[in-house]
Amino acid sequence: ERGNVEFQKERYEKALKEYDGALDQLLTVSYDKSIIVGKMKWVDVVIFRSKIHLNKSACHYKLRNWRKAIDEATECIVGNVRDEMMFSDAHIKKKVKDAEKKHGACGVTFIEQRLPRPLRAKAWFRLSRCFLNLENAEKAREACAKALEMADDDKDLLAELAKHSAMIASLEKNQKQQ
């Protein structure tokens, strides 16, 4: 909450510190064995952690730190792999191992499916905007497509994505002409 207040006041560095503090508190919840977190509450922790990473991404975006904004938005979508592996139930770990034996190891545990669709859409849109600023049209287009997939009936987001898609097309056209 304090991070959001700092963000609203356009104090992005301070907001980042507040968000880091919130992540530290979530780590305590994650690692402290005396705190028992049920399956449903663990999903809430994962979603909250993802929101914090997306907020950090917004700060870096405002500061024009495109790579850091990408890292945080990616963290929102894929989560902290180490935490996911440590705190998955034994039966889930077995399913992952069995799937890896059958299909090969993927190396990354995606938490995206647990996140609400609007949060996923925002994260993919942020990635697309950052890639556009880095002039990586291909990755911007891919992330924009994922955002569109998640946007559902959010008319405001769909309108923003349409404008953004036009900007990607313009970048692609300029890059082809060079």
Automatic annotation (TrEMBL):
Highest taxon listed in the record's lineage: Eukaryota
InterPro entries for this protein: TPR-like_helical_dom_sf (IPR011990), TPR_rpt (IPR019734)
Keywords: TPR repeat
TPR repeats by residue range: 121-154
Keyword hit for RNA-binding: no
SMART domains: TPR
Gene Ontology MF, one: Hsp70 protein binding
Pfam families: TPR_16 (PF13432)
Any one Gene Ontology cellular component term annotated for this protein: nucleus
Any GO BP: protein folding
Signal peptide residue numbers: none
Oxidoreductase as UniProt keyword: no
Protein name in the entry: Uncharacterized protein
